[in-house]
Amino acid sequence: MSGLDQSGLPVTLDAVHLRYGATTALDDLSLQIPAGSITGLLGRNGSGKTSVLSLLGSYRRPTAGSVLIGGADPFENERVMEQVCLVRESGDVLAEERIGVNLRYAASARPTWSEELAQSLLEVFELRPKDQVKSLSRGKRSALGIVLGLASRAPLTMLDEVHLGMDAPSRYAFYEALLTDYAEHPRTFILSSHLIGELDSMLEHAVVLDRGRLLASTSAEELRTRGMTLVGRATEVATFLAEAGLQVLGERRLGPTTEVTVVREPGADLSDLEARVAGTGIEVGSISLQDLFVHMTDRSQERP
Ligand SMILES: Nc1ncnc2c1ncn2[C@@H]1O[C@H](COP(=O)(O)OP(=O)(O)OP(=O)(O)O)[C@@H](O)[C@H]1O
């Protein structure tokens, strides 16, 4: 890696294991996050999202395997880490200090810092430099984390559930600010969240974890097209499904009508589904990333 990479850093995890004592948090995780992408790091509680970000933020080292940012090991690597910004849910701020002091501290540590962006975001989120961090409400403290994360303009910027506690208008202001600044200053963003519905349209790449294992690391578009819904008369849908060779994830009955969610195997094609249902009265619809995620991580079918 030479100098500052202004267009975003790629991330590679190769056979990564992370254990906390007897707990295996990450189990043989291999994935790549493209440089310059807005990537969603998705998973249920305890799936390992924060653990992945702690490795990338150089708070921890893997028990086994390798973590590379821009081709280099980030651990205790100042040259890499000045280009990496991780904002954790806890904020990582100097709570006893004023907002202005926190901003000056961040600016001094970051060669890519934009003071202009920081000041405009303070206005967007109605934060005043003279306010003490410890007196901020939870939502305002989250907003401060977002100001620090976005104004860092770090080539790898990671935001771990940062928008928790923020009201809907503030969250939408955050999404808009991120997209606007990203358009002018592309970089790699990794956003970890449960609010997949809100992030869906922003994401270019998605990493889905479940119990420390990788379920998917793929383009968001590929993930979105993995599933479809079929809505029609129950008998017709059942007849179609009997011949279609599709995996059924879920079914909802609404009187004589049924809605089934089907998925294709990675690499298979669902684009001909419209043509295949022609004349059956069945309608084909898309499913949201949120619904697909719920289905992918559903454990209700598991039996010990
Ligand atoms: N410091 C720790 N000591 C022991 N176990 C830990 C520690 N941190 C995390 N774990 C365990 O590692 C696993 C992954 O946790 P992690 O915090 O990475 O998940 P997460 O996806 O970020 O969860 P959440 O969405 O609830 O924040 C969980 O089983 C968790 O209990």
How would you characterize this protein structure?
With 304 residues, the chain is α/β, with parallel strands linked by helices. It has 2 domains: 11-211, Rossmann fold (3-Layer(aba) Sandwich), CATH 3.40.50.300; 223-297, 2-Layer Sandwich (Alpha-Beta Plaits), CATH 3.30.70. 32% of the residues lie in helices and 28% in strands. The chain has helices spanning 49-56, 78-81, 99-109, 115-124, 138-152, 168-184, 196-199, 220-224, 234-244, 273-277, 289-296; strands at 11-20, 23-33, 38-43, 64-69, 84-87, 156-160, 188-192, 205-210, 213-219, 227-233, 247-254, 257-263, 283-286. Helix 4 runs antiparallel to helix 5. The termini are far apart. The relative contact order is 0.14. The site of adenosine-5'-triphosphate has 11 residues, from strand 2 and helix 1. The site of adenosine-5'-triphosphate (ATP) has 11 residues, from strand 2 and helix 1.
Reported for the largest beta sheet, the result is:
6 strands, mixed
How much helical structure, as a percent, in the residues?
25-40%
Q: Biggest sheet: strands side by side, in what order?
A: 5-6-7-3-8-9
Number of helices: 11
**What spatial form do the alpha-carbon principal axes imply?**
globular
From the alpha-carbon coordinates, what is the Rg to the nearest angstrom?
22 Å
The distinct ligands, each listed once, are:
adenosine-5'-triphosphate
Helix and strand sequence: EEEHEHEHHHEHEHEEHEHEEHEH
The number of domains is 2
Termini separation: 48 Å
- By DSSP, the count of extended strands is 13
* CATH superfamily membership of the largest domain: P-loop containing nucleotide triphosphate hydrolases
Q: Which percent band covers the strand fraction?
A: 25-35%
Computed structural class: alpha/beta
Determine the mean pLDDT.
90
Quickly name the level 1 CATH class of the largest domain.
Alpha Beta
GO molecular function: ATP binding; ATP hydrolysis activity
Protein name: ABC transporter ATP-binding protein
Organism: Ruania alkalisoli
Domain ABC transporter: 11-236
